[in-house]
Design a protein that fits this description.
It is built from eight helices and ten strands. The chain has about 260 residues and is of the alpha/beta class. The longest helix has 16 residues.
Length: about 260
């Protein structure tokens, strides 16, 4: 058992894909927002307009993900130029930090490309996203990320869901040191966060806690899907739920 501690000992980041979810994150007591688009592809860079509007309406820190597409994390020189420009624009919109991750073809952290993105961030804090979970050697990757002077790693313990990766996460927390936070994400919610915290000793968590809200569209063309898949709903939208986030915070207070 870990000793009882206040909620202030923990850090909660909400993965938000809209202004509505970012506002809900702040109302629910989150410490920070990772701002994304295209969550069905694992998240990609949000638009400048979204970043600007979130900054206008929220006071908590906003970290846009810098990812030009879904899929793997091996980026071409052209994609690198896109990401560098995205960082530049997001800084102008008021971004408080960035979420990045580049890998080599052999599954290593790409030190050179990550360095370029970090340099473009002009000293703003950096999170290395779940590209970490696609690395061939988690501990080698951690050491490279330390050399990059990145502040945080988002990981599920190299499993689809964090609850299944707690053994590796606990090891990473143990060796990460005081200057690098291990942030646990993927499937973390109000029902399992106590167990994950106890098993890993992690203090930083990444959550979505979304609920589905029905579209107000009256005319609906059934069996036609703009995303090409019926699994991606046309007439429902998912937003972070304030009450679920508040419940999660209360659960952490009990630890």
């Amino acid at each position: 058992m870990i000793p009882k501690m206040k909620r202030q000992s923990f850090e909660i980041e909400v993965c938000a894909n809209s202004v509505i979810s970012a506002i809900a994150a702040e109302k629910g007591g989150a410490d920070r927002v990772e701002l994304c688009d295209n969550l069905y592809e694992g998240g990609s860079t949000p638009s400048a307009g979204m970043i600007y509007q979130v900054k206008q309406q929220c006071s908590i820190a906003i970290f846009p993900i810098i990812r030009p597409r879904g899929g793997d994390f091996l980026y071409s020189d052209t994609e690198m130029q896109v990401m560098l420009k995205d960082i530049d624009v997001a800084r102008q919109m008021g971004a408080d930090g960035f979420v990045i991750g580049c890998l080599t073809a052999k599954g290593k952290v790409d030190y050179e490309k990550c360095s370029k993105l970090i340099e473009s961030a002009k000293g703003l804090p950096i999170t290395f996203h779940r590209a970490f979970d696609m690395c061939d050697d988690a501990f080698e990757a951690l050491e490279t990320i330390k050399k990059l002077d990145i502040q945080r790693i988002l990981t599920s313990g190299q499993k689809n869901k964090a609850i299944d990766g707690t053994s590796l996460i606990a090891e990473l927390v143990n060796v990460s040191g005081s200057d690098l936070k291990i942030m646990v994400g993927s499937g973390v919610d109000e029902n399992n966060i106590q167990e994950i915290a106890s098993l890993t000793n992690a203090k930083s968590f990444h959550v979505s806690l979304r609920e589905s809200y029905e579209s107000e569209m009256l005319f609906r063309r059934e069996n036609l899907f703009m995303g090409g898949l019926k699994e991606i709903p046309e007439y429902a939208h998912k937003y972070t739920c304030v009450e679920r986030l508040r419940t999660l915070n209360k659960v952490l207070e009990e630890l």
